[in-house]
Amino acid sequence: MALSWRAVALVLVGLAPILQWPSMTTVRWWLLGCVVVIGLDLLLAPSPARLAWGRSEDQQVRLGEATSTTLTVTNPSRRRMRGQVRDAWVPSAGASGERHTLDVPGGERRRMTTRLLPTRRGDRRTDRVTVRVWGPLGTAARQRSVRVPGTVRALPPFHSRKHLPSRLAQLRQLDGRSAVRTRGQGTEFDSLRDYVEGDDVRSIDWRATARRQHVVVRTWQPERDRRVILVLDTSRTSAARIDDQPRLDAAMDAALLLAALASRAGDRIDLIAGDRRVRGRVTPNTDRKALLHQLVTAMAPIEPVLVEADWTMLAGRVTGLTRRRALVVLLTALEPAAIEEGLLPVLPALTAHHRVVVASVADPELGRMRADLGDLDAVYDAAAAERTVSLRQRTADALGRMGVHVIEADPDELPPQLADHYLALKAQGLL
Amino acid sequence: MTARTGRRLALWGVLVLVIAIAAAALGGMRTANQVPFDPDNPEDNGMQALARVLEQEGVDVTVARGLPQLLGAPVSADTTVLVAGTALVGEDTGRRVTEYAAGAGRLVVLSPESNTTEALGLPVEGGSTAQVGAAAPSCDATLLRWRDGDRISHANRLVEVTGESTAEPCFPPTPGYNAGGARAGYLVELATNGNRPETVVAGIAGSLTNQHITEEANAAAGLRLLGAHPHLVWYVPAVSDAGDTAPQSLTDVLPDAFVPSVVLLVLALLATMLWRGRRLGPVVVEPLPAVIRSVETTQSRGRMYRRAQDRERALASLQLAARRRVAARLGLPVHSRPEQVVRSLAEATGRHTDELHRLLVDPTAPDDETLVRIAREVRSLEEGMIG
Questions:
Q1: Chosen from A126, A380, A408 to mutate, greatest number of chain B CBs within 10 A
Q2: At what angle do helices A376-401 and B296-308 cross, to 10 degrees?
Q3: ipTM value
């Protein structure tokens, strides 16, 4: 139950009879009267349990964008119900305007819309819907909480998509679709055409030129239908926060940019996200447009888990995917201990069949600590930062000796660097 | 129990402790008894000294402050009843004191005011003449058996006999004061009659105070007055005894509607608490992820260096990193030997090898200032190479 200001006012009105008949007996009788009135009001209030609830379908929204959810309440009884409704969500769902006024005549239905602006990636759930229905006098209400389940899925924001147009332009150059066709080692023969000024003279096909009386060049197209396998490490190292977002989120950003680029280039994308077990999985899809959606949907609910990654299992999954040579991108952290004990032993099995790239999100704070020599404490911190960097460098060197390319960059820089590395591999035909 | 609730409990505990200490301190600071002629008043105008001496002499002193306490104290023929001042004794109170004292062995009225006749029904009247100098008994009183040497100083009230010839005034202001027919003295003895015990009306309250009891024969007079019986009921009239009606409580003087109104307001407050305190649904908790800052391990390492004051290790780490960057810039392999880096750098910059050795290789730093200075010099060396 719940009381309203009217109940308080009712008690206070008792001051009048007390001034008239000043005694404790008056107080007792007045109190009794109030209890009876409020109790009757409560008894006569319609039961909120009779209301029937429904909710609109679950929404998917990119993190940082707003959406809304609609509650539908049906009053199957004959009596009108007045009161309040609170559609409670977890705080990170960013619900606003979650309190609604309930006024449903008997047999009718009302809709209530709550705005949502999620503040964290992942599935943000509802809590309970609480409804309060007032009695005829409005002094007391019956209150009840029901579960009307709903979820808003906040997808990874894909901030790095701003880099996509420039990388696609580079890709088109490789692809031969632009005016100036470039030629590279790793390209496949496409067709012959007349020489125009600016073409690489090395691509002149002399045999065809001899036949055609004017100069003819060969055109090339990059390799297609290569396989790119993205391995997203969701273990403890991915939980570490860099500029107030988990390392995992930055890694997702890089993975999305690479996937978008590679799918345009005609390659096929696999995603394996996991630590001790696989938490998310996307298989190659012929539909290029659906791919990105599949990826963000698979990534959205993944949260960092505080366990050590089982690289043997993850590498086993990768080798089980294909026998063909593929580009394997390991999105993990360059933590010396985690890499040396977990990843290094299983790397040879991967590098034997595939081209392996390790992409790690670096912490810009480390650079700031290195740069600051302001006072004694700062110098000690700078020394510690240099030590961390040199340990990471050692790990990177060890990886490099095993034929693995290591990219370590700040959260903003990693996606374009990874994309550039992919383009470079593509241009050289090393996929 | 989480750390948060633990902290909250500790806070409450500290709060309760502070309140308890404050209450104790305030209680201790409560001002001492300052009621005139009170047996617990250690000030100049109190009578604690007399009361203590009486107790030492085996007299059982019962203090009654106000009429209700007096009427609650047991009284018998071996009890002395002392009325310490009549200024606050109203007529109604006086009558009940008289009734009470009828069962006592002796009634002593100290410091009688002009209301003594009406209030206590005694044939005497308190005057206002005070005397500093000593007065001699000069009377034939039998009750207290005064001797000539018993002199009393600092008496504060002259007692005049207004009727009843059995009254015996003693200690006149001057030896010849009563010669002209006046009957007055600082102390008047009244023999027992049907409704009163033997009674002494004494204006010598000033003599018996802590300030003056040691002078002349004041102490002896006090002991003789009050120590005749093994029990002494020491009645200190309270302010509430002065009125004609029975004692009143606070509620009697407030309007009739006051208490019911307050009760009603309290009820309204309770209703308000129920109104405002009821939430529309429970608090929703956020399933929070683990928050680990990525630089935490590095910062901890820095703190470890600092706590251990490991200047050499810190400096060596800075120098190693600087050597690597310098080597990369000079086109040397990353893992070149330190000497080789120093030599190449000396050739490139023209600086002396010893100085470069000190900056890039030698990790000794005898104190903190040296550490900071070398670190900055290394940095400026690197920056100089860029520029």
A1: A380
A2: 130
A3: 0.73
